[in-house]
């Protein structure tokens, strides 16, 4: 769960996160949005297309984030109504990587290194499909 004892800077709920990107017509052109995408043998050009599509999905949700300073904590919640089991770290890591990079691209944070982001937390909740992003000042 997010650290509710530190002052909250920003919180955003992103409804109905995309779960896959389809770049072609055959089954091999479907890429599920998990950390496996970064570690598998997916060609870098394909990986870039998938990441760019996900960043396009997220940008409207994160555009209202204020400029962030140093010493922040990021909590990423993954909420799903599905009864299937999945690895939280696999799903949340994918979104963490994209969100941190996008915050830097949108100039909301100068860098995503440890001078700026000191903690990252993942949590899961059952419910309507969404990603919960909360940023706290440490």
Architecture overview:
The chain has 138 residues and is of the alpha+beta class. 30% of the residues lie in helices and 30% in strands. It has helices at residues 36-39, 44-62, 88-105, and strands spanning 8-15, 20-22, 30-32, 72-80, 117-126, 130-137. A four-stranded mixed sheet has the order 1-6-4-5, covered by helices on one side. Strands 2-3 form a two-stranded antiparallel ribbon. The two termini are 15 Å apart. The mean pLDDT is 88.
Task: Spell out the key features of this protein.
single chain, globular, alpha+beta, 30% strand, 6 strands
Q: Layout of SSEs?
A:
Layout: E1 8-15, E2 20-22, E3 30-32, H1 36-39, H2 44-62, E4 72-80, H3 88-105, E5 117-126, E6 130-137
Parallel strand pairs: 4-5
Antiparallel strand pairs: 1-6, 2-3, 4-6
